[in-house]
């Protein structure tokens, strides 16, 4: 799944399949300017920062079990968001400090470091095994058997082939001409 925020005419948090199909709004009320988003892949939660409401909130992948992690002056001007173990990590764009927030109760907010021009944050953890998926490279070096672009579809076992600009997908659904 692909998760994203939008604060155009109607502010919302959305999800869709990686090929753009099955687009679904998961949050569309009591939300103003969702800017940063982070996923808990294990427990299937979506966290986001709303810079207008000065809040960090969470819902499950279906938009249920919504609650506010933290709200108020402590979380003003946040940009970027990452989740790792028991904490959320974010950047305060006013003073460029990296903040750590307990993601279960919003307490234990700590400034960890300060960086020049910090606007985004990512946490990386080495994984020993990655599940196979429909876009793995085939024996001919083509991802998912697609000549140009392979996008995961409704599950990790399904895929959609797409073509680069200027090409059209052939009748076989895999080659671009």
Automatic annotation (TrEMBL):
GO terms for cellular component: plasma membrane. It comes from the Eukaryota. One of its GO terms (molecular function) is Wnt-protein binding. Coiled coil: none annotated. SUPFAM superfamilies: EGF/Laminin, YWTD domain. It comes from Scytalopus superciliaris. GO terms for biological process: canonical Wnt signaling pathway. Signal peptide: none annotated. LDL-receptor class B repeats lie at residues 1-43, 44-87. The gene is Lrp1b_1. InterPro entries: 6-blade_b-propeller_TolB-like (IPR011042), Cueball_EGF_LRP_Nidogen (IPR050778), LDLR_classB_rpt (IPR000033). This is LRP1B protein.
